[in-house]
Amino acid sequence: MDITQFFSNYKNHPILFVGAGFSMRYLDGAYSWPALLEKINIELTGNNEIFIDLRRKHNHNDYGVDYSSVAEDLEVVFEESLKQDRNGKFKELNDEYFELAQTDYGISRFKLFISKLVNIKNTIFVNDEIPLLSNASKNIASVITTNYDHFIEGTLGFRTVIGNELLLSNPYGSVYKIHGCISKPSSIIITKSDYDNFNTKNELIRAQLLSLFIHNPIIFVGYSISDLNIKNVLKTIFSYIPKDTQIADEIRKNFLLIERHENIETLDVITHDIDIEGIGIIKINKVITDDFSSI
Question: Model pTM greater than 0.85?
């Protein structure tokens, strides 16, 4: 099926679920998750040896590297290093940390540094797609993103909603920063402890997201088919709704993953099997393309 025909079947405006690959397409200097952690290590020590050791330590044969655990350990190293060298290379970061920590008890030097690295400005490329994306905003209900930067809300003109603010906000015309935002460094979710707290203490947010997923088409962009965030979304939905029911099938038909591959211009929608732990095989619609202008 062609993507035009696929979109014509939508009864409601879709929600974009945006990952790191989207910012990396448009921002020169944006990072993937492992690249961000490696950059922190290099800035701290001048090399990437700690990152390499931690990546090996937290590599699992079944599902690859657990980067949340890598981040957890790297945060400890980063914090201890800056404590011991209070007035060294990161003196200004330490100064800002102590100022913010007087009122923000959740702040850390590690997350404050991440907010600096991810705060990319005026480095947009692939410029011909930006106006098309902005014009498309009238047909987008809202955006959910695991990114920390301001690119998507700045391009669409949507308001930013961070963390628990989701519960009190209008679901339309908003960018939901479910993993935090550089404007509030303590909100950033990156370590294993952060993810564990999010998964156990934010049931109301998960319920709100579940409602959005059920009532609107979801377009994933900036993720690969194997991304943990996509698998977690599907696991959340199909933990409540048996995957072999009619309603589950209707929800699944509304999902589309746009997976970028260079020099591929096709816009055919195909199905792809994803194995979700505890759920089984889920079929999801997918487009493999580099033609974002047509989309």
Answer: yes
